[in-house]
From TrEMBL:
It comes from Undibacterium terreum. GO terms for biological process: carbohydrate metabolic process. It holds the Pfam family MdcE. It comes from the Bacteria. This is Malonate decarboxylase subunit gamma. The gene is mdcC.
Amino acid sequence: MNWNTLATLMFPQGFEITERNNFLSGTAQVDGATVAVIGTTEHTPIGIEIALAQAQAVLKTVREHPQRPIVIMVDTQGQRLRHRDEMLGINSYMAHLGKCIQLARNQGHIVIGLVYDQALSGGFITSGLMADACYALPDATIRVMGLPAMARITKVPEELLIELAKENPVFAPGPENYVRMGGLHAIWDKDYASQLAQAIRDAGSVDQRAALGLQRGGRKWAQRVMDAIVDGHDVAEA
């Protein structure tokens, strides 16, 4: 879905969002209050420029509008694979973006992520997955790595990975599998405006992803290991 069409549906009370070089920034009205909006479009890869632009937008909101909710609209094919970006330290830029989002959360900003088209690899990890809660549209494409590429990297036959993906969401792309793992809180189908307003009201400061993954049966050990560490037990006892 085109970001402008989505914004019209998601922000019926009005919005002022600009697009520049596939970077989205601006404000919108949600449930009678102003929220900050940042994001990406056109499946853009995350290079140093757009990672820094997103980080700057987050810091500006923290500095000028304390505790204003932030909505991150995600559409990216992942980290930009260029020698220039690697030499300039794209990993550090992306880490900086993630730290800025965490800073906003620490300062009382509710952060909501929405995958409205593509969300791949590091471009998703340091944006939508850093939010208090992340959601997706039904037709969104979400994956860390495609199964053919995973087969080449891991040397595991693609046919075996396809079979594993049927039972284990870790191997499988698609928003439904990320819901099972707890990475997504839910998939939005209709009435995006009311669902966004409800997401902001429901957002909390405690990371629920591991607990959701355990509850939904898609990520069975993360929460158990965390609890064992906190309680000082041997992981095998969990």
